[in-house]
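REVIEWER CHECKLIST
Item 1: Sequence provided? yes
Item 2: Single chain? yes
Item 3: Sequence as submitted:
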Amino acid sequence: KLGARLRELRVSAGLTQAEVARRTGIHRPNIARVEAGRHTPSLETLSRLATAIGVPTTSVLSNE
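Item 4: Structure as written out by the authors:
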């Protein structure tokens, strides 16, 4: 669910996984694993992903 929310926000922002990877320094396959729900990111990683997408971390955690 968290991964799907991240993907939804990333796509809404018009960003590719590669662009988010470039902005965060997190390898693209790791971002793909988070989005697929195969890995739960740490709060720090979640914050980095949210910042790269341009949304507050709280919006990733909410269902809105």
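Item 5: Key structural point noted by reviewer: The mean pLDDT is 95.
Item 6: Recommendation: ____
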